[in-house]
Every structure is written in C-alpha cells, then in structure tokens.
Amino acid sequence: MYIKKLPEIAAISSSLFMAILAAYILDLSIDATVSLAIFFLVVLVTLLKWEYRLAISLFGVSILFYLGILKFEEFIVHTNLDIIIFLLAMMIIVGYLEENNYFTYLISKIIKYMHGSGVKTIALLMLMGAFFSAIVDEVTAILFMIAITLEIAAIYEVDPYPLILAVTFSVIIGGTATLMGDPVAIIIAFEGNLTMSEFLNWATPITILNLFILLAIIILFIRRELREMTRHMEKLTLYEVVETIKRDKPVKTRLSTILLIGVLTLIVFHDPLSQILSNLLNKEVTSEIFLIGSPLILASILLLVDWKSAKLVLLHRVDWMTLLFFMFFFVIVGSLEVTGVLRKILDSILILTGNSELKIFLFITILSGVLSIFIANVMTVATVAPLIRELSLMGLHVYPLWWGVLFASVFMALSTPVGTAASLVMLGMLDRHKIGRVSFRRWIKIGMPSAIITTVVSILIIFVRGFLL
Question: Which domain holds residue 252?
Fold first, then answer.
C-alpha cells in the first residue's frame, strides 16, 4: 500500500522541501512560500501522474482561494483566456477536419512519392509532420501522423519505433515555425505581443534549417532500419499501399478545404488584416484581438452550418481536460507573480547577470532549455514568460529572448518523452494500440543529440540577429 503511494508521497515531500529551501534563499513571505509549494506540487504530480494534472491544479487553486492568497479578480486576470479561447477554436476546426478524415485524404494524395525508398519515406513523413504541426498544432498533427506512421509500419512489416521517433521529433520541431503550431509558441506570441509575420521572419527560417539538421541526424541513426524498410517495400505495389491508407473515405472535402484555407489565411495575415479593419471601422482592432477572432468566427460558422458533426467534435475532439489544466496552471503561475515570488527570482537573475542584456538572454534561454528536459515545456514557458514581461517593462531589450526561450524550451524537450505535449500524446497512442512504449534509452540515444545540436544552432542564429546585426 505504501509502495503504491510512493510517487504521491515523493511529490508532496519534494514540493515542500523545495518551497522551504527557496523561501530561505529568497527570503519569501508565508503566502509566497505556500504559493511556491503549490506550484512545485502541481509540476511534480504532472510529471509523475499525468492523468491527475487537472485534479491537482484545481486543488492548488482552491487552496490559494481558501488561504486568501488569491482574489477572484486576480484569478480572472491570470487565466490567460485569450490563449484558451484561441486553442478551443482551433481544436474545434481541426477536430472537424479529423472527423471527416481530411488529413488522411491529403496524405493519400502524396503517398506515391515515398513508396520504394526508406529514406524518401522517412523524409516525407517528417516533412509532412513538420508542415501539419506548423499549420494546425503539434498535438493535432501527432494524432494523425502517428496513426499514419503505424499504418505504414504495419503495411511494410517494419519496426515502428524508429519511424515514430522521427515523426514525433519532426512534429515537435515543426510547431515552432508559426504562432499556432505549438502551445509554447502561442504563449510566447500572446505574452510577447508577437505577430504571425514576425514568426515567419524570425522563427520559420530557423525551424526549416533545424528540420533538415534533424533529418540528417535521423537518417544517420536509423540507417539500418531504413535499408530494411526499402527491402520490404519491394514486396508491395503502390496500388496496395494507397488502397490501405484510403480505407477511411473523406467526407465533405470541399467544406473542409475551404475551412482549412480560410483559417490559415486569417491567421497568417492577421496583422495587416487587423490594420485594414481598424481603418474601415475608424477604431482600433489590435492584431491580438483579430488573431483570437479568426478561428473563433470560423468555428462559429461551422457550428451553424453543420451542427450535428460539430456537436460530435465538441464532445469527442476538443481536449477539455488539457484546456482547463492550462487555464488553472496559468493561475497558479500568476499567484507567484501576485505573492512576489517572480519578482524575487527576477532580482536574483539581475544580480547574477549584472543587468547585462546578453547575459540575461543566455541565462534565461539556457535555464528554459534545461527545465524543459525535466518539466513539460508549456509549464516552463508559462513560468518564464512573466519574468520576461517584467524585464521588458524595466526597459531592457528582451525581443531576442522571446525567440531564445521558444527554441530552447521546445528543442531541448526532445531529450525526454515528457518534454512536450506531442510526445505525451504519442505515448498515450502507443498504449491504446497496445504496442508498448519507446524505451527511455532508445529515446535518449536519438533525442539528446538532436536536442543539443538544434538548440545550439538556434541560439547562435538568434544571438547574431539579436545582438550583432
């Protein structure tokens, strides 16, 4: 009985110990210590018992209420409803496309380009994973890309794990290209007031470069498996492969195409479109408001046009548990700001770095990357973002820091299976298919060098652009 409770006991005792230690080092008040203990508890329970993430975050917020540490007005401010609403609307739209097998339809159109070569197959799967992650989001992309990858592995009777790792890593990296591709990118876009055009200018080129670096690393590490896959491909015709993938026929293809093109157009051009709308209405419509409204208006039209299908999407495709967890975790992070914990940490960083913008950039970027190895990168960035915002209010040049944190937190999270939402979803899919999890050793063997190389390349590019040019 006690052995089964060891993870919970470890989480509670560790969170209390770390909070007390931090309180001593930073000279925190009782309220700040309690707030920090709750934060550590939520992080540790999420790591040890992912299925309890929402329960523990609800518990933490209720304790903050009961002890008078957090007021309801402060709760509302820190829920980050702009991010939650954006994610909700995107989940409705993408869920509708999934419900109609639209992504399988798209992939069936290009499968002919990968048949006959293991290298071409892995390259195309990775490029598709990165592309879909960039245009929708990594969680959605991983859902249908892993499904397709498992099917391809089954068709060709090859070991699925190397393909799964390659596709998962490409989906994670691809999500950094746009502001809607990754929950981390969404947080950074809203917190840093960054537009889609800025992502295309700063993030997309770095993402593309690192995607090809990752592809080279993957081919190097799984070259034997790819040669074996090529031999197996010779046993099947292209027609047999296409028919297998097209088992689930798409429906409402025209509406799905219009929906996908519409949401991508509004999001990609949300900055100039918001300016045009502001001029037409003779009042300010910020790019952030237009960005939130873009998927929201299309989701509302979808609910009106096809209510029956949309109802199924709302019930089965929208990840309500994750949305609520994000919202309540944002509140817990907000309590660190309310009680002064973040300010104490910020003061310590400024002392260590001597107010040097370059040292601050390197310190926080590296810290975000290291933390993302052990803590889900969404939680890391949700914690670090308020610190960067405070530095900005102090008049410091933090623009390159947003990009540094984006790439360090996402790319270093490749090191472990618990670093990103996409990897956690992938592990859940393997469990549901009763395939078994990828061994930690196997993950580290490819993930660690991929993480280090891509992170270093990204930081160097941002350093040159942000501080030397």
Answer: 81-316
